[in-house]
Amino acid sequence: MTDVVDSDELLRRIQRARAFAAREVQTWSRQGDAVREVAYEAVLRVLDEIVAPGRQAAK
After folding, report:
1. Please, are residues 17 and 33 in contact by the beta-carbon 8 Å criterion?
2. What's the start-to-end Cα distance of the chain, in Å?
3. Where are the domains of the chain?
4. d(CA 38, CA 54)
5. Whether pTM exceeds 0.70
6. C-alpha 16, offset from chain centre
7. Residue 14: exposure state from Cβ atoms within 10 A (0-12, 13-18, ≥19)
8. How far apart are CA 47 and CA 43, in angstroms?
9. Which of 6, 27, 28, 32 has a CA 20 to 30 Å removed from the CA of 21?
């Protein structure tokens, strides 16, 4: 991937990825797949920290 993107586009992509991860957490939670649910929760926490640094309390 050699696309050069500005900061606004990068933020939009991160927000889309965050929305996808949030949906996947719900999907895997309903299906009872704890491993995938926890994996997507970790991705969600990382993306949250990128978008809003320091807003999430450390657990």
Report:
1. no
2. 34
3. 7-51
4. 21
5. yes
6. 8
7. middle
8. 6
9. 6
